[in-house]
Design brief:
Elements: H1 3-6, H2 51-77, E1 94-96, E2 98-100, E3 102-118, E4 121-125, E5 130-135, E6 142-143, E7 148-152, H3 155-190, H4 196-228, E8 231-233, E9 238-240, E10 250-251, E11 258-263, E12 268-275, H5 279-287, E13 293-297, E14 304-313, E15 323-330, E16 342-359, E17 364-366, E18 369-376, E19 380-385, E20 387-391, E21 395-399, E22 406-408, E23 421-423
Parallel strand pairs: 1-23
Antiparallel strand pairs: 2-22, 3-12, 3-16, 4-11, 5-7, 5-10, 6-9, 7-8, 9-11, 12-15, 13-14, 13-16, 14-15, 16-21, 17-18, 18-19, 20-21
Helix pairs in contact: 3-4
Length: about 425
């Protein structure tokens, strides 16, 4: 068989379409020939990780899971820590200090914020116009009532006074003359030498001259007052402030410029505000005629500044704050209270007799309920609830325990009901 027959009538010539003997067969496009394998471009896919790295990752994950398991197991097997007290492996019995409840007297106070207020603060203004001749005070000086403060040029007012006195003397002379004439007219009228009308006219002349004299006397008094304003003196005993006018300045009447301010320091008062809830017990004491003592403390409420007495209270309650204003007076002999100074006022209302007193440091609070740790026999403590009546820095008056009871005064952070304790000092 020839080559053509073996190929079914197809031509082997490259680039030519082979002959198709069967017309039913479809004609296909000629296939492109691939280049040799050595000449094809190499297409690289993602690299595969080496086998030992995969095994190392799995080993690390397994070690982490094992470590977490061991830690959780150690926590589950650990025993809970015992609270401080009799079963505590750390501290054993709690070390405390103790005191005893006793019977005694304690004062009941009302504490409030107050302001030091002078009894008198006088601001001096000029009532005349003139030149300042001299200033007799030093800044911050203590002056007494009547001490000279400022001198104003008096010469214009002296001249006016002299003129008024001259007019007064003139009118007094006219009055004297009119009175002499009136007496003459009365004598003449008695002898029927003159008419009644002439005598009565002279009587009115006397009245006119008397009015002129009175007007002159008023003018003289006014000029004397104006002249006195040239010599300004201290109206009260107190301390003057900073100097506000110098010699040589001209001051004017009614200008509103302050010449000097004098503040009275002895005695001095403290105004403080008390809640309306405490007003009833204060009024009960005042109705009995008692003078209530008031102590003034500094801003820290630790240092006592002065002692005084309650003098008055306001006539109405302030509706915005629910407080009423009280005033206490202090002698202030050492000038320890200064005007407008803020202080803590402590008003002594009454003294509670034969009360059960405990150290203030021993009183503890559980929310709103105060309580004490009672030291029992066997060196254990128990919780005892109490009621607080009043307290101060040292002692607290309570109800709910008996005098002589031993109570804990320190170490409260390690105490609980039934805890064992060791009392220091025993």
């Amino acid at each position: 068989m020839s080559q053509e027959k073996a190929n079914g009538g197809r031509a082997d010539v490259a680039g030519q379409t082979p002959a198709i003997d069967n017309p039913d067969l479809q004609v296909h496009e000629p296939q492109k020939l691939l280049p040799p394998a050595k000449e094809r471009p190499r297409i690289e896919g993602p690299r595969r990780r080496p086998w030992w790295r995969r095994w190392l990752s799995w080993l690390l994950i397994a070690a982490f899971v094992l470590l977490v398991f061991l830690v959780m197991r150690s926590f589950s097997n650990a025993k809970p820590a015992a609270p401080p007290g009799k079963n505590s492996p750390l501290g054993g019995a709690a070390a405390i200090t103790a005191g005893q409840a006793a019977t005694g007297d304690i004062n009941i106070y009302i504490e409030a914020l107050g302001t030091v207020t002078p009894v008198n603060t006088v601001t001096v203004y000029s009532q005349i116009t003139g030149r300042v001749m001299a200033v007799h005070y030093h800044e911050g000086q203590m002056v007494h009532e009547g001490d000279p403060l400022i001198d104003v040029d008096p010469r214009p007012y002296e001249a006016m006074l002299k003129q008024a006195q001259g007019n007064l003397n003139h009118d007094r002379g006219l009055l004297a003359e009119a009175r002499i004439d009136l007496q003459r007219y009365k004598d003449a009228f008695a002898r029927n030498a003159i008419a009644r009308q002439q005598m009565e006219d002279q009587q009115q002349v006397v009245v006119q001259d008397e009015g002129a004299v009175e007007a002159d006397e008023g003018t003289v008094a006014y000029d004397q007052t104006e002249l006195s304003y040239c010599h300004i003196v201290a109206p009260v005993t107190g301390r003057v402030g900073l100097r506000l006018v110098d010699p040589g300045n001209t001051i004017f009447a009614g200008s509103g410029s302050t010449l000097v301010v004098v503040t009275q320091l002895q005695p001095i008062t403290v105004v403080f505000y008390v809640s309306e809830d405490d007003l009833a017990q204060v009024n009960a004491q005042l109705k009995g005629g008692r003078r209530l003592a008031v102590d003034a403390f500094d801003r820290s409420n630790e240092n006592k500044i002065a002692s005084g007495t309650l003098t008055s209270l306001d006539n109405e309650v302030d509706t915005t704050t629910g407080t009423i204003k009280f005033r206490a007076e202090f002698a202030n002999q050492n000038l320890s209270l200064f005007p407008n100074q803020f202080v803590n006022a402590r008003l002594l209302v009454r003294t509670l007799k034969n009360a059960t007193l405990v150290p203030t440091a021993a009183v503890q609070h559980n929310g709103t309920q105060p309580f004490l740790y009672i030291v029992q026999s066997g060196n254990t403590v128990s919780v005892q609830q109490i009621q607080v009546v009043t307290s101060n820095d040292q002692n607290t008056a309570v109800t709910g325990i008996n005098p002589g009871t031993t109570i804990a005064t320190s170490g409260f952070d390690r105490l609980e009901n039934g805890a064992h304790v060791t009392v220091k000092g025993k």
